Amino acid sequence: MTATPIALRLEHITKRFPGVLANDDVTIEVGASETLAILGENGAGKSTLMNILSGLYKPDEGRILVDGKPVTINGPLDAIAHGIGMVHQHFELVPPLTVAENIILGQEPGGLLVDHRKAAALVRDLSARFGLELDPNARVADLSVGLQQRVEVVKALYRSARILILDEPTAVLTPQETRELFAIMRRLSAGGRSIIFISHKLDEVREISDRIVVMRAGRVVGETPAAGATNADLATMMVGRPVVLEVQRGKAEPGAEVLAVHDLQVRDDRGAVAVDGLSFTVRAREIFGIAGVDGNGQAELEETLTGVRRAESGSVRLLGRECLGLSPRTLIEMGIACIPSDRHRRGMVGDFSVAENLVLSNYDRPPYAHGPWLDLAAIARGARFRVDRFDVRTPNVTTLARFLSGGNQQKMVVARELSRESRLLLAAQPTRGVDVGAIEFIHLSIARQRDAGSAVLLISASLDEILALSDTIGVMYRGRMMGIVPRAEANVEMLGLMMAGTPLEQARAAAPVAPAPTDAFVTGG
Amino acid sequence: MNAILNGTFVISVLASTLALATPLIMGALGGVVCERSGVVNIAIEGIMLTAAFVSAAVGIVSGNLWLALLAGIVAGAIAGLFLALLAVTLRVDQVVAGFVINIAAAGGTSFVFRSTFANASVSPPTLAPLSIPVLSSIPALGPIFFQQSLLVYVALALVPLVHFYLFYTRAGLRSRSVSENPKAADVAGINVYLIRYAAVIASGAFAGLAGAYLVADVGSFSEGMTNGRGFIALAAVIFGKWRPFQAALGALVFGFFDALQSQLQVAGIAAPVPVLLMIPYLATIVILAGFIGRAIPPAADGVPYVKE
Amino acid sequence: MIGGMPTVPAVASEEAPASPGAVAARAARWRAVLIPLLALFTSLVFCALMLLISGHNPLTVYQALWTGALTGQSAFANTLVQTTPYILLGLAVAIGFKGALFNIGAEGQYIVGAIGAVWAGHLFNGAPAILLVIFALLVGSLVGALYATIAGVLKVVSGAHEVITTIMLNYVAAFMVSWLVDYGGAMHGSGEIQQSYYVNPGAQLPIIWPGTPLHAGLIIALACAAGYYVLVWRTTWGFQLRAVGLNPMAARSAGISIRRVTIWVMAVSGALSGLAGAIQITGLQHVLPDPFGSGFGFDAIAVAIIGAGNPIGIVLAAVLLGALRNGATTMEAVAGISGPFVSVIEATILFFVAAPIVIRWIYLRWRRARMA
To answer: What's the predicted TM-score (pTM) here?
Structure first.
């Protein structure tokens, strides 16, 4: 297929899990010095395929050839031995250890004793060679997300990886950091390495790769050189049907002020400043979207607004009433509903049934309880109604929540939060890890809530989602609001600059003011 | 009151602190090693007791102190192996696994004890205190530091050794990574199960040495003689935030209270004996509650690892 | 787990059924019953092997156990008498598990409950029997609750781990008994025997099986088992408890107060254990000896785990353990095996229940061998 020698070939790979055919007869080739993008939505099978390549899973059928020779990969060590290095989407780092310790883990220089000096020297050498600046003695836990990713890349290079797999690497980077990463990738590729770049972001994929393979529902559904491919074609191949570009909703008619955040200061778990003098307001019938790369204080903001974290100073007023220092219970009663960014940890109880999860915040009031007694029949009835209304696919309401798919779990959380009388809906990363069908539904539900008069605060790391839903957009960077603009005045470049720390005026000047909402963004990026 | 406020009393307390803290130090070091691989060891108590019994039995039969000590270590290691089997391979909840061993140890040692040498006339060999030449003649410091039995010095020497192991060797680095993020270690090609097995077995050996010491110190075995020391050792681990030196310090603090109550009894203080006996246990609670703050354990502590 | 989030022991937990439905649910229930039974059987076999190795005849031993525990009116009644505190203590530990707390202090709470009951009974020695009994039971429960709350408050306020604090409190409670009850103590009886003063023997929980020591404490315990079910699964409090036990962060975000739940569940747990101690006094002994209740703490954990945290299982497990302990005296007299051997049986059963995978492995192989 390609003129260059084939560095890696996956042949007829099939992998089954209970109830799911994750990879269905997949055949893919990568040439030396080639950057291949594998494009697909969540659940398309990309991660499974890469886990097979990196030795975490074994394929049920098929074989793998490196440099033309079939190889068996029984575990991560084999993959490393064959020159396959993977940079995972969720970093596999040990936070309390240093950068150097993380990089050398498993292949430590020296014998029984760890030669720390040699390790630091090796790390500095690799950093210099590829332009990946790192301090070997820094603790990984103290590094920013972008730097942690660098540690992962150097880890792969340390093991002499010649085939590098990058799994959704730009999910946690600003547009500027993404550009730096691409520069690094080009350098690595020029040196003879093959790169497999996994993503669902169409523009990036077209920019950096030589060839694009599209996967859907476990199979390869299309392949094209990057040059000449259009977003529309790619999106259609990925999703299998024409894609909705902007979420249908009523005209924006913002009402009275509902949430007023003023000069909010919050520290994170390690005592560093996470939210640094943040101020903004959200009105009724408005979706205020906060854009920003993960890790700039959004999680701490979310936790403060739901009463789970104490703020240092500042004020948060809901309809004029001060919220800081109040318990989660009180805030819920005041009318704050929240779709949390981490549904497994804070959104649902996996070992509770769907019905029990649906009453998690109002199990103790009528009609679900009379005094201390639960009314199980009423709970089940209410659950059935909501499951139906919010399209939660579950065999019945007594099924344990952990058996549902990610999208249905999220819909369940949405069902619970949107069924309450609320003044403010806080939706944090509402479609993370959710399949396309569910994404559309969730976005429609949020829009409906706003049309019905609620104020909505949307926090999302996906610019696509922000642009698709918001009426007003603010950008958070290092805990501060870089700028607030109406949707009509925003575009990707400007927002991207602000996400990397450029203040509003400069960003506005640098990026064309005319908005470009008609670029083909797939909802749920 | 005079009997308490004079120097002899203080010296006696401090001297017996080291001796009484020794099994706690050993147990705590074992606990640190174990939890720094991600496995919680609630069975320190039961392993200590089992090893004490085995050590006493071997001691009586052979009359050889060193064999008895070795037997205790080996018995502890075998018990540790069993714990590893439960916790790592069978993935039983680690606290439950610990209690299985504790219950089996309590019942098993009593049962076998009564049907074997409960009424024996022979005693296991004891460990006499050494007197380090010259140094032991120093007033005050001499009796405290330089007239202890060999195992006391062994325990103190083990503290820097464990520290060195954890922070300067390859095995220690791997173990720490397994305790914080076993998936990352697995992906780096490290054998998580092997490391945990080794750590838990080693932890058992430490607890075994502690049990053997208990017997060698008093020269006999009695049912339930560990009396909660295994759990106090665990408290020391938490007190020390899973670091060897601080955990040993915690063990010393708890040992101090034990020594205090014992010497108060000897000094004839006018307080009921049971109340004095409560002191070390109450101290443990107060210290654990008051002086530690939120101690953060290794991230993967207590969570069985499942290779996908 | 120590220092981290405590995990509820996942005994006989199921893997994700590919198609959860009525069939899978029924199979799960079968397994819940089958596994403890197989565990019991397998551990008896295992312990028999151990007996054989050490030169004893397992059949004689088991026969002695059986006779001592179950044959004849008096033996069975005595077993049920032993069962009564085990039910309550098992419930106490189990309710802690539901909130992801390891209350190992059931023993200490049992002891202080008994102390409270003896003190209360002594104080009102002249009162009508029924009032005295009720008062003693209430005081015992209250004291047990307060004692457990100490560990609960410490945990909430300082994060001190309840496994260690409750075990320490057990030892403190045992010493308290010695202090109060031995010669020279405040609650000492008369003479040289290390025991407290008598509580009016007339103030006795009614005997429900005439001619035996079996008293109404059993009824109270069974009522508590039913109450446990209602409390945990049918009340809003129980809902909070389960949520906190399964996912404390999600519970907190939903507005549930983890602190309040922790303290209350320790209080309820302690009340159950304290009640057990009070029942032991007013139903059976009327006096508090030194030592009292040793070893009950570990047994309580075993009952809770073998009983898989549900009331029926706990009652059955309590009967099992009561039978073992009761039969132990006969076993010792007739077969010459000392009492603590039943702890070994108990630990073995606990092992097989906690690691059901071993049972499945053994019996699956055996079945395959048969079919081959």
So the answer is: 0.84
